[in-house]
Design a protein that fits this description.
Mean pLDDT: 78
Largest sheet: 2 strands, antiparallel
Structural class: mainly alpha
Radius of gyration: 23 Å
Distance between the termini: 60 Å
């Protein structure tokens, strides 16, 4: 099997939380900064607990004669999200060995042969122990909280040029190979829904919940300053020389 030195980062984002130190859990003082709330009891994971809904949100009234309710079949085609605890993982299975070949075909051009990342495309492996440093590298192995979420993202968004174009077995195999690159699976491993649920990711406990949204949701179109004065905090002329044709000579 191909192996590699450890680098990292994958995109983007995971369910609602703020990633803190990887090895040690965030302190009570740090937690207090992020408006934490207590999740309901049960077997649900933190990735599956919804943020408390704002009291004032309501959907607009339907306009008579325009549109119709979506059918269950239409919704099913889009509603493919998998929970962090593995709820709604589809049937199927895939091996690390099969995943290596699929990864080289569909993923390596952007993410590197060993998940190290190419140019500005994110790395998928490495970076453990860096999240609480000034050189944090967020990858599948260092940052992601739940293995089923890795499968979910890859199936929904990848390959970049043709998302959702592979079979569930192929997506399981690619997921298995990426987990193998992060030393979370041996090279002879095979994964299915049950095996993915059982994998404990290194940063599983590095997230805390926030009671969002934490800003008002009322639109303001007039009188938004409520009588408060408007001040110029920064003058662009300190960055662009007047007369350089790269900006205005006077504040606008």
């Amino acid at each position: 099997m191909r192996r590699a030195c450890f680098l990292l980062a994958l995109g983007a984002a995971l369910a609602g939380g703020y990633a803190l130190a990887q090895q040690a859990g965030p302190s009570d003082a740090r937690r207090a900064l992020y408006m934490p709330f207590t999740p309901p009891p049960g077997e649900r994971t933190t990735a599956d607990v919804a943020w408390p809904a704002p009291a004032s949100i309501s959907l607009p009234a339907p306009i008579p004669g325009i549109g119709r309710p979506a059918s269950e079949a239409e919704i099913a085609g889009w509603d493919i999200a998998v929970g962090g605890d593995g709820r709604r993982l589809p049937p199927g299975r895939g091996s690390v060995r099969d995943g290596e070949e699929l990864y080289q075909t569909h993923c390596a051009a952007c993410h590197g042969e060993f998940g190290e990342g190419v140019d500005r495309w994110p790395a998928l492996m490495g970076g453990r122990g860096t999240l609480n440093t000034d050189q944090a590298r967020r990858t599948v192995g260092s940052f992601w909280q739940h293995a089923p979420a890795v499968f979910d993202y890859i199936r929904r968004a990848m390959p970049y040029a043709a998302p959702q174009s592979l079979s569930n077995d192929e997506y399981y195999a690619i997921t298995a190979y990426i987990l193998h690159l992060n030393e979370l699976l041996p090279e002879d491993a095979e994964v299915d829904a049950a095996r993915l649920r059982a994998i404990r990711m290194p940063n599983r406990d590095g997230f805390i919940l926030e009671a969002r949204p934490d800003t008002p949701d009322e639109a303001c179109m007039a009188g938004c300053r409520a009588g408060r004065p408007v001040r110029i905090e920064v003058d662009s002329r300190q960055f662009v020389r007047p007369g350089s044709h790269s900006g205005f000579a006077e504040p606008q």
